[in-house]
Write a structure and sequence with these properties.
The chain is of the alpha+beta class and about 240 residues long. It has seven helices and nine strands, in the order E-H-E-E-H-H-E-E-H-H-E-H-E-H-E-E. The longest helix has 23 residues. About 10% of the residues have low confidence.
């Protein structure tokens, strides 16, 4: 029987992370449901009050290390979702309805576009006050992406992935991470001492791993458990 817990936090992302820590697992091994209390839970990521999420541990989760290896070294999952174009259009309408209401509660400066790419939903949001939607190092953005994915898959037999980008944050973050990787690797080579980076999610760790594959005298690997998994950058003596 699947294990189910209710987790709480000041934001949706915090509640999810606490639940994952309690279950000692990652997002890939669970199903997450945002509890719709007072019909306002979708807006709780920006509200200073308690947010509750229901997290269900799947009965046969894959090994975390296998998933980590796939994400960080093999890139995207090449298994395509089998979902009809009609279903995708219905999902786009649901997301459009939510975003229209949600963004109107913040300010009128935001615009958004919803597209379909390789049977996935891609949402781009732009606006003068986009920083509030991104949050500290993308925490709010990631929480919003989780919510949009939940909306997309509610009452839907096929699973669809939603990718959210706000004001080109992910492009800017990727560039910053690549620059960080280069800077740290030079320090490691100079001092001949390994350096452990701050905790990052799997997407960000993959960027670091991929960038430093170009350096023959540098090796990277991950340590720790989610959400505190970190990259270690070390020198290789050939």
């Amino acid at each position: 029987m699947s294990k189910v817990i209710i987790s709480e936090g000041k934001t949706t992302n915090e509640a999810i992370e606490k639940g994952l820590k309690e279950l000692k697992t990652t997002k890939n091994n669970v199903d997450i449901k945002i509890l719709d209390q007072e019909k306002r839970s979708f807006f709780d990521i920006l509200a200073p009050r308690v947010v509750k999420v229901e997290i269900t541990l799947r009965e046969e989760p894959q090994s975390n290390e296998i998933k980590e290896h796939h994400k960080e070294n093999n890139g995207k999952n090449h298994t395509k979702n089998e979902i009809s174009s009609e279903n995708l259009e219905m999902i786009k309408e649901k997301i459009d309805c939510f975003l229209k209401d949600f963004l109107s509660r913040i300010d009128d400066s935001h615009t958004y576009a919803i597209d379909v790419e390789d049977s996935n939903i891609v949402v781009n949001i732009d606006g003068m006050k986009s920083g509030v939607l991104i949050g500290y190092r993308g925490e709010t953005l990631n929480a919003m992406q989780t919510i949009l994915t939940s909306i997309a898959n509610k009452n839907n037999d096929s699973r669809v992935k939603v990718y959210l980008n706000i004001d080109d944050y992910k492009i800017k973050r990727e560039k910053a991470l690549e620059e960080l990787a280069i800077k740290v690797s030079k320090t490691v080579l100079k001092n001949n001492k390994s350096i452990t980076l701050e905790p990052m999610n799997a997407y960000e760790r993959k960027i670091i791993h991929s960038k430093l594959q170009e350096y023959k005298n540098i090796r990277t690997h991950s340590i720790g458990e989610e959400p505190n998994r970190r990259i270690v950058i070390e020198k290789v003596n050939n």
